[in-house]
Design a protein that fits this description.
The protein is of the alpha/beta class. The chain is built from six helices and seven strands; from the N terminus they run βαβββαβααβαβα. It has a seven-stranded mixed β-sheet with strand order 2-3-4-1-5-6-7, with helices on both faces. The longest helix has 19 residues.
Amino acid sequence: MATRRRTLLKVIVLGDSGVGKTSLMNQYVHNKFSQQYKATIGADFVTKELQIDDRLVTLQIWDTAGQERFQSLGVAFYRGADCCVLVYDVNHLKSFETLDNWHDEFLKQANPSNPSTFPFILLGNKVDVDGGNSRVVSEKKAKEWCASRGNMPYFETSAKEDYNVDVAFQCVAKLALENDQDQDLYFRSIPEPTPEPEQSRGGCAC
């Protein structure tokens, strides 16, 4: 192939307020490339460019800030997503217990063509807090939940310490890319601009 394909992938980050969604995204994006941060109705997104094999990938990562207050707008945020990242705080049980609601709400709003195979990934954030002594959700419990949801990938992260953030989002990008290749519905490779054909000799070039 003469040109590498550039693909835009839409990733939605969901979870209760305060679990560190924005911090994770900013840690990931800020440390690698200059970040682009824009506000839209009820949500913000950041973008990150990376290369996976021979593919140039632009991750468009949506942070559903305050989404709890904007449920009626959910469809607009979720539509066209290639991967969904669920985040909870390992130190707060309620943020773990609401994961089922976030998972099911996403599938209802996004309405992917094949809900059973749509890629999700779970992040247990804030493992750095109090040296791990404040933790209430064990890794075992989180992995059991992931297993019950079709062996969803799981990473324990700390946005503050930059622990596992890059690795987790690399996995997100790969899952999203696989899903994009399978469906190819919403975002296709961005075609290279083609120059308009020149006028034949002697013709009017105006």
